[in-house]
Amino acid sequence: MIPPRMVVPTRTYMEHHRLPTRQHGGGAPKTARALAAALALTLGAAYGQQPLPRSEADLEHFLGWFAGEYDNNEQVWQQAVDGVAPEERHEHIHHIFLPVAAPAVGEHTVFVKQYMDGDYEDVYRQRLYSFSVNDERGAIELAIHSFNDEGKYRYADRDPAVIEGIEPGELRNIPGCNVYWRFVDGHYLGEMDDGACFYYSADQEQNVYITDTLTLTAEEILIGDKAYDEDGNRLFGRDEPHFNRKVRYFGGWAAIRRGAFDPAAADPEEMLVVRGLRLHNEGQVVPLVTESGDETGFSLELARLTSRNSRVAVLTLGVMEAATGETVAYSWADPDAVRIGINLGWMQAGLTQEGAAQ
């Protein structure tokens, strides 16, 4: 990551990006039910002042916002810079929400893959979501399906056709765990019914109650997952939600002088090209490997972060030592820039957002 001396935060990440959210009661059946009831009344009043989703057009609008990939890199980076103890930091999670065709399950289905610490293979959650309009509730209803055989569909994000023939019998859905989304004050709020989502834990020897509190905008999704035991004691989950921003992918190239990683080479001045780079703008790190397979010992990181001095967000392109993760140098641009580059003499790189005009 880019070290604190270069780019540091101005205040806590959630303070800087805070959105209006409403908690719905925490899912704890004994200690939080009264609070949940009070909040439900507040939410009901707020929803009553807003247009309710009652058509496929409303659902299409929601799905247009929801689909994509999200990452909470800046939240985790800032906590590290601020000296938050590792065990208190939010997990670094990358979310893939990919619309897929699964006609036997529903008309609007989304393949979900969530993995940890930028490691595509470290998958901690894989689901199939199905969305529909619930006119009775004036909400968009999300049904969450687990796979009986996750391995069979592990790479459906790379090959969506494999999921097209999936049957309902290959999935599990826990009654009471559906999420209801409503459009309030310019964004969507999602919540479960209080106390309805639970399962029996053999380890706990009691029911475990799950709650999701979510906020969706066109570019961000806040996810607050929590679990409670029957006495209202929290088993997992954090006070602040995971703040995830929709990623943008960039493609490009780099060139590096051979002597930068192989000083004893016969021609240390030779410039070697790295083509076909692809990385997203929320902290993805990719190693620089030449066309002939030479590992250069350097990596590129593309990240949107907040500068302490200017107090504005910037898009940074960092050159890192792969072994240590130390940043050698970096450049920056407007956070919405579609092009960014760097030229250090001994290495150069250029990236352009996918789909941007050439």
Write a structural description.
- A ten-stranded antiparallel beta barrel has the order 1-2-3-4-5-7-8-10-11-13.
- 11% of the residues lie in helices and 44% in strands.
- The protein has helices at residues 13-17, 33-48, 56-66, 73-81; strands spanning 68-71, 93-102, 106-116, 123-134, 139-147, 171-172, 179-184, 187-191, 198-201, 206-216, 220-228, 234-236, 242-246, 249-257, 271-280, 282-289, 295-306, 313-321, 327-333, 339-343, 347-353.
- The chain is elongated and about 70 Å long.
- The protein folds into two domains: 13-245, CpcT/CpeT domain (Lipocalin); 249-353, no CATH class.
- Residues 1-49 have low confidence and may be disordered.
- It is mainly beta and 358 residues long.
